[in-house]
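LAB NOTEBOOK - FOLDING QUEUE
OPERATOR: T.R.
BATCH SIZE: 2
PURPOSE: Compare the predicted C-alpha cell outputs for two unrelated chains run back to back under identical settings.
PRIORITY: normal
REVIEWER: second-year student, initials M.K.

ITEM 1
FIELD SEQUENCE / FIELD STRUCTURE:
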Amino acid sequence: MAAPLADRYRLLHPAWGDRFGMTHIAAGPDGAPAAVRVLSARPEVRAADIELLTGIRHPNVAAVRAVLVDDRVAIAADAVLGRTLRRARLTAGELPKVGTSLAEALSALHERGVWHRTLDPTTVRIDHRGEAVLTDIGVGHLLGLPGRAADDWLALAGLLSTVWRNTHGRWRRPPAQLRDVWADTMARARDMG
C-alpha cells in the first residue's frame, strides 16, 4: 500500500537503503516519478536548508524538488533512471567524461556551500543518455555528517580509481585523460586541506 508523505508524494516502492535511510520510487504531486529519500533520523530542518538544497541546479545533479517534514524527514528529488556507477561497465573513453561531469557537479554543490559527504558508486547514476548524475544531494547536509569539500574530492578520486580497477583490472594503466582528471581531483583536495 502506498504511503503519503507530507500529503504531496506517494511512496510506491522501496528502491534501496543504507544506514542513512531508505530511497523510494514515488509519485510526485504532478504524477511524475520522483526519488524520495526518507531519512533514518529526524534532524531539525530550517527554512534556509530547504531553500539551499532546492536551489541547486546543474545537469549532473539530481535536482532536489522538496524537503518534506512531517513525522519523518525526506528529500524528494528527480528520479534518475539508469544504473548506478557500481553496476556500470565503462570504457576507457567513458570514465574520464564521467569524472569530469562529477567534478563539475561537486563544484556546483560546493559553490552553494553544500558538501556531498556520502559520495560512492551507489550515489552516482548513469542515465539513459550516458550522463553521470550525482544523487543523494542533501543527505549529509541535513544529517549533519562531518565533512569538507576536500573529503568530496578525495572520495571522487577514490571512486574513479575503484571503477577503473573493477572494470579494467588492477594492473592496466588508465589512459592519460583519466589520469589528468584524477590528478586534478587530488590537487583540489590537497588545496582545500
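ITEM 2
FIELD SEQUENCE / FIELD STRUCTURE:
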Amino acid sequence: MEPPSRPTLVYDGECPFCANYVRLLHLRELFPDLQLLDARLNRDHPAVRQLKARGLNVDEGMALLSGDRIYHGADSIHALAEFGRPNGAFGRINNWVFRSPRRSALLYPLLRGSRNLVLRLLGRKKLGF
C-alpha cells in the first residue's frame, strides 16, 4: 500500500479532545501541506486503510503519516510538537509538554482514557478500528 502523497493526520472528529487539539494547535497554519483526516468520515480513505493494514487502531491514538513513516498515539503528538512551531499559549504549552518523548509516553494513556470516558458519557461509539 502506497503512503499518502502529503503528510496526513488521522484522528477521530467526533472526539472533543481530538477535534479541539487539531483546532487549537492551528495545524493548517503550522503545516500547510498537512491533510487533516477525520477517520469517522473517511473510513475507506487510503490512509485509514493503511493504518488498519498495519494493525494500528485509531481508537488507541491519532496517527501521523509522513512519507513512509507512521507515528501513532504518543509518537504522533510528539512528532507534531517536534516539527511544529508553537502558535499561541496552547501551542507553547503543548510544544513544551510533548516535545519530550518521555512526557508524551507518560501522558498519552491519560489523554486516551479521558477520550474514551468522554465518548462514553456523550453516548458516542468508538470507531472500532
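REVIEWER COMMENT (ITEM 2): The radius of gyration is 14 Å.
FOLLOW-UP: none requested
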